[in-house]
Structures are given as C-alpha cells and as structure tokens.
Write a structure and sequence with these properties.
The chain folds into 2 domains: 72 residues, Elongation Factor Tu (Ef-tu), domain 3, CATH 2.40.30; 124 residues, Threonyl-trna Synthetase, Chain A, domain 2 (Threonyl-tRNA Synthetase, Chain A, domain 2). It is built from 4 helices and 15 strands. The chain starts with 14 loop residues before the first helix and ends with a strand. By secondary structure, the chain is α+β, with helices and mostly antiparallel strands. It is elongated and about 55 Å long. Bound molecules: zinc ion (ZN). The site of zinc ion (ZN) has 7 residues, from α3. GO terms for molecular function: aminoacyl-tRNA deacylase activity; aminoacyl-tRNA ligase activity; ATP binding; metal ion binding. This is Threonyl/alanyl tRNA synthetase SAD domain-containing protein.
C-alpha cells in the first residue's frame, strides 16, 4: 500500500535525523513563508561538483508529487532539485564556478510555479471532496505538473459518474474565493498543513495559493488505469 504522499511523514524521520535536525543548518524554505516570491538573494553554503546548497531558497524541489520549479542560481539553470529530509540540493551546470560563501540571486519561472500552485490546490480540493463524500477511498498516487494534475484511487466502477457533483462542489468552493490558511503544526520537523475554515484541514508541505478563487475554471477527465483503479486528471480552464 502506498503512503499518503501529500504528507511529510514525521514517522519517516529516523531518531538520528531528528537529533541531527537540532544541530545542522538546513536551508530556510522561503517558498513556504511567501510562495509568491520570484527572486531572492541567498548565500551558497556548500558546493560538491555540480551540486550546491544555499542558506535560503524559493526554488521548490520535487516533493509530495509536485514537480520542481524551473529557475536559476546566479543565472545558472537549476537542472535538478531534490529534497533530502530537511535539506535541499540543487544541481547546476558543471561550469557554475560558485563557491561556498558566495552571494547569489535565485530566480524561479513564475508562470510555471503559479500553474503548479493552482493545479496543486485544485487537486487538494478534488481529493478532499472525494475523501469526505465517498468514504475516504484509498489514494494510490498523485502527480502535479504544470499542465495537469492527477490523483489515483482504488475505486470500483467509473469515477466519472461523480464528476457532475464534484465539479459543482469544486466550483462552489472556487467561486466562494475562500481564504486558504497555510501554517506549521510542527516547525521543528517542518510539518505543515493548509486549512479552509468550515471545509478541511490537511497536512501538506507543498506551496499553496492564498485564496481558492485563484484556481479559476477546472476541467476533469477520467482515466481507467487498471481493474479497480481510477484516475482523475485535472486541468485548468485557461
Ligand atoms: Zn498541498
């Protein structure tokens, strides 16, 4: 059975990593405090070949099914970004020439990030509506890219039969332009949640929009991915 991949699992942290968390300097994830920031000055904290770390960042690494941001560190393309527990590693082109201690400018591709944020939250809403109204079917996968999101369930029958209701409920939440509150529930272990008052409170370490209205129009598409397994694909209307 797959874990719920939205959640930064506290249990996955080993006792050792919990102890080390107290003494190691991890990158400050400014993409949580301000997910709308597109440029940031930071300091390089380590360099190992093409792999660098920085003291603070706005470039989101592939996590919880949400794809990495595209961006640059001092003009060098981020080729890969990976989160390992509380640290984030960025791979740049070999010729980057950066050294520990250098001041750098980090920029992200905002057009892509904003689509990822909107689709991520659209997926959050669909997932939560399904969970609440269809007796929490097991979620077996999720992925957010810049052109669509998908969520997979163990589900008998055709999940598209729920789409009329789902689209109506999602539209009600989106047109209500509700405030989305995102916060730590355990900052030491970087466990975060989002909450919409009266609707849901969900653990998630992704980057979240501030209001549901930012999502705009949604389109849902069904895909049967195997016996008893159904996929919902979510696309933005624009
Ligand atoms: Zn989320």
């Amino acid at each position: 059975m797959m874990e719920n991949i939205w959640i930064y699992s506290y249990n996955k942290l080993t006792a050792k990593s919990r102890a080390e968390a107290g003494k190691t300097m991890y990158v400050e994830k400014v993409f949580w405090k301000n997910p709308y920031l597109t440029e940031l000055t930071a300091k390089v904290t380590s360099v190992l070949g093409s792999k660098v770390t920085v003291d603070r960042t706005i470039a989101y690494p592939f996590s919880g099914g949400q794809e990495s941001d595209y961006g640059t560190i001092n003009g060098h393309n981020i080729i890969k970004a990976e989160k390992q527990e509380k640290q984030i590693f960025y791979w740049l082109e070999e010729s980057h020439g950066l050294m520990a201690g250098d001041r750098v400018d980090i920029k992200i591709d905002w057009g892509r990030r904003y689509k990822l944020m909107r689709l991520h939250f659209a997926a959050e809403i669909i997932l939560e509506l399904i969970s609440q109204h269809f007796n929490r079917p097991e979620k077996i996968g999720a992925h957010i890219s810049a052109d669509k999101a998908r969520v997979d369930f163990i589900w008998q029958g055709n999940i598209a039969q729920a789409f009329g209701w789902l689209e109506e409920e999602a539209e009600r939440l989106i047109s209500g332009d509700l405030a989305i509150h995102s916060e730590f529930c355990d900052s030491g272990n970087e466990i975060r949640y989002w909450e919409i008052e009266g609707f849901a409170k969900v653990f998630c370490g992704g980057t979240h929009i501030k209001r549901t209205g930012e999502i705009g129009r949604l389109h849902l598409k069904r895909n049967n991915i195997g016996k008893g397994k159904e996929r919902i694909e979510i696309m933005l209307g624009d």
